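Office hours follow-up: a student asked to see two folded examples consecutively, so here they are.
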Amino acid sequence: MPPFTILSGIAAPLPLDDVDTDKIIPARFMKTVRRDGLRAGLFYALAHDAEGRRDPAFVLNRPPFDRASLLVVGRNFGCGSSREHAVWAMVDFGIRCVIAPSFADIFYQNAIKNGVLPAVVDRHDWTRLAHAAAQPKGCVLTVDLARQTIAQEDVQTTPFEIAANHKRVLLNGLDEIAQTLAHLAEIEVWEVRAAQLAARTTGTRTI
C-alpha cells in the first residue's frame, strides 16, 4: 500500500456520533472482493433519498466536498460489525484520513491495514476542525504523520494521537504481508529448527 507521509486536501464534515459500518456501506454492496467501484455504496442511506436518487444535500454529493480526501466525523466512528469493505469504499472515494474524537477498534485496525490514517483528536480540537470543515467553501487541512499534526491556514496546529507501531506501518506503507516478510530471516531460521526437531522426534532425516 502507498506510504502515508503528508496529506493536504479538502476536509468534509460528517459530525455524527456512532456511525456504524452498515451506514458506511450496506451489506448488499459487499458481494465482491474487488476494491474498486465500492464508492457507489459509500454512506448510501445518507447519500440517497427513499427512491434511491442521489441527495444533493448530502455533504459528499456536493462541491467542493465531492473531492474530499479527509473526513471529520463524530465519536465512535465505524462501530458495529467488522467490514473491511467500509474502508475499501472510503479509499475508492479518495478518503485517506478520518479525524474523530474516537473510533471503534475494528474499524481503526482495518483503516491502518489499508493505508487510511485514523487521527484521534481531543474534543475541543475536534469541535474547531468540524466547524472549519463545515464552511460552505470548505477548508484544506494538511496532515503530517511524522509530526502528528493537522494544520489549517491561519489557525493553530492541532496534534493527534496514534500508536507508534501504527505510525511506523503507515509511514512505510507496510501491509500485513510486508510486515511478515520483514521477519523473513527469523522465520527461515525457525523453520529449519522446527524441521530438525521434528526429525529427531520421528527418527527421520532432514535434507
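And the second, which I mentioned at the end of office hours:
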Amino acid sequence: MEEKFKITSVVSVCNNRIWLNGKLAFESKEPDVARFLLSAFQNLKISYPKFYKMDGLSKLGWIAAEYLLNDKPGFAFNDNFSAGMVLANKNASLDADLKYYQTVASIPSPALFVYTLPNIVMGEISIRHKLKGENAFFIQEEFDADFIAQYVQGLLNNNILQSCICGWVDLLNEDYKAVLMRVEKNGEGVEFTSQNMLTYF
C-alpha cells in the first residue's frame, strides 16, 4: 500500500515577489531580475559570498530554496542522504549558455562555462544545505505535475528518500519563475498530489 505524503512548505518566486505558504515574504521594485535577486538575497541578512558568482538560474533556485528551507528546520532529518531534489524547467541553462557564447569571440569565460548545465542549480542548493540524496533535473515544455509527482512518489515509496524538494526553476533573460515544494513522509500539510501541486502554479 502506497503511503500518502505531505507538501509541508511552498515557495513561489515571480514578478518581483516571493510568496511563502501563501503569504508575501518579500517584495522589491528593482527594475530587472538581477537586482531583484540581489535584493532578495540581501533581505536574508546572511553571509554567503559564493552567491555573487552564480549565474541567474542558480541564484533564482538558491533564493527559492533558502526561503523554503528556512521556513521549518529539520528538512534532512539529520541524514543528508535522505533528502533530495527533483526539478524541471523549460529553458535548461540557456540564459548562461547565451552569456557564455558572447564571450567566445574574445576570451571564453570559465566562470560562465561552469553554469552551462541546468542541474548546477541543484548543486548550489545541495552545497548550501549539505543535501546528498537522489536528484534529477528534467527539461519540459511546461510543468508536468503528473510526471514530477509520480517520480517523487517513487523515490519516497521505495525509501530512496524521506523528503524531497521538487518543482520548477526557470530563467531566461528577464523572464523567470520558481515554485518549490517540500515534500515529506512525516509532516503536516496538504496531500502531495499532482492536482495540489498545480494549485501553486
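Two things to take away from it. The chain has one domain: 6-198. The chain has seven helices and eight strands.
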